[in-house]
Amino acid sequence: MHSGFRYRLYPNAEQRTLLAKHFGCARFAHNAAPALKIKTWETEKKNLSQFDLCKLFPKLKKEEATAWLSEVCSHSLQCEMANLDVAYTKFFREKKGFPKFKSKRDFKSYSTNTGLAVGEKTVRLPKVGEVSAVISRPIVGRIVKATVSQTATGKYFVSVLCEDGAALPEKMPITEAGTIGVDLGLTDFAVLSTGERIANPRHHKKALARLRRAQRKFSRRVKGSTNRRKQARKVAAVHEKVANRRRDFHHKLSTRLVRENQTNAIALETLSVSGMQKNSRLARSISDAGWTSFVGILEYKAERAGKTVLRIGRFEPSSKLCPCGVINRNLTLSERKWKCESCGATHDRDVLAANNIKRMALHPKTINTGGNPGIYACGE
Fold it and tell me: What does the DSSP assignment read for 228-281?
């Protein structure tokens, strides 16, 4: 089983220069490789693998124009080729997200997989040396890889991936009593099948006034000036605080749902977030909620706890289906409650959706296929 550790780094002036060189060389390798792959395919109809690309770096280091590549850890360039190969594989499988060229402003990270060590107050990086760090948790297992990054506010972090050799726990049996349905939304971030409502914190909306003031000041600064660079960091600091608060909320809520003693399965609805964001009126609120990030965190925590995340298809009428079997196809988004014309029951659409998600997820076809979305069809 793999575990991740993230530490804050405090490099000195010399180490900051070395890290900047590593960022630049990794960016150069990332940008040069796609151009070479495309050119080779157009001329020779040959696909260059990551190993073919790695063989080119020793030659580039001997050339005068690119001799500066020898100043950084060679494994950082090889890791960049491996990351790029994964990106190309993902593109050809999912047919979206073609690898793009990285700019100097946006691309400030590199990875390495050798010469790493984590001490009590330092992290050793190849060709950089011992860097002061805040070690919040001790390393458990063998270090597999480390990624060093710099944020827009100038902070340095290292993410360490370790392998401890432990196996994932066995999945708990799925029962109706031990399954909880979760309906994600905007009015409330989540509504549980138990009837509990979890408020939407709306972190970005709360910081919008402060963000607008910072951006107005930034737009008035002279381009290329020191004051403009300082104000850019202030704008980035507002965004960073919003992102940190949102991530903290996601982690706390996902941990709470997974650690519920009586819960052994969590049922969710598959959402097309990219499609929903095309609604100009709701796009900002949907991005602020961060559903995709939350579901990703919830899934890996459930897997580590031996619990299952069940999914139903995105087209299921979760909020429109009465327990009696009648579907209210005329229900609009503004109607938060509705009454069934058949049985006369009055429903809160969010609570109803959470319970329907649970019921659909427990359908035998959904469970037997490992919780794959779109398996259960309403009315079966």
Answer: HHHHHHHHHHHHHHHHHHHHHHHHHHHHHHHH-TT-SEEEEE---HHHHTTSTT
Q: Is the pLDDT of residue 370 over 60?
A: no
Q: Which residue has the tokens 């996902």?
A: 254
**Which residues, 6 or more positions from 364, have their beta carbon under 8 angstroms from its beta carbon?**
none
Backbone angles phi, psi at 316, to 5 degrees: -75, 140
Is residue 181 helix, strand or coil? strand
Q: For residue range 294-318, what is the model confidence (pLDDT) as tens digits?
A: 999 999 999 999 999 998 887 777 7
Separation of alpha carbons 57 and 66, rounded Å: 9
**The pair of three-digit structure tokens given for residue 347, joined into one six-digit string:** 């429903």
Tens digits of residue pLDDT in 166-194:
888 888 888 888 899 999 999 999 999 88
Catalytic residue, chosen from 80, 288, 316, 350, is: 350
Is residue 380 annotated as a catalytic residue, yes or no?
Answer: no
How far is the CA of 56 from the CAs of 52, 61, 66, 133, 353, in angstroms? 7, 9, 12, 34, 56
Query: Which amino acid is residue 155, in one-letter code?
Result: K
Q: Which of 269, 288, 299, 316 is catalytic?
A: 269
Phi-psi region of 325 (alpha: psi -120 to 50; beta: other; left: phi over 0): left
350 catalytically annotated: yes
179-368: CATH topology: Nucleotidyltransferase; domain 5 (3.30.420)
Q: Residues of CATH 3.30.420 domain(s) within the chain?
A: 179-368
pTM: 0.86
**Angle (CA) 183 288 275, round 5°:** 65
Please return the burial class of 16, using the count of CB atoms within 10 Å of its CB with bins 0-12, 13-18 and 19+.
Answer: middle
By C-alpha distance, which of 44, 5, 28 is closest to 76? 28
Point out the catalytic residue in the list 80, 85, 183, 299. 183
- Render pLDDT for 51-95 as a digit per residue (tens, 0 to 9): 888 888 998 899 988 999 999 999 999 999 998 888 888 888 887
Bridge-partner residues for 235, per DSSP? none
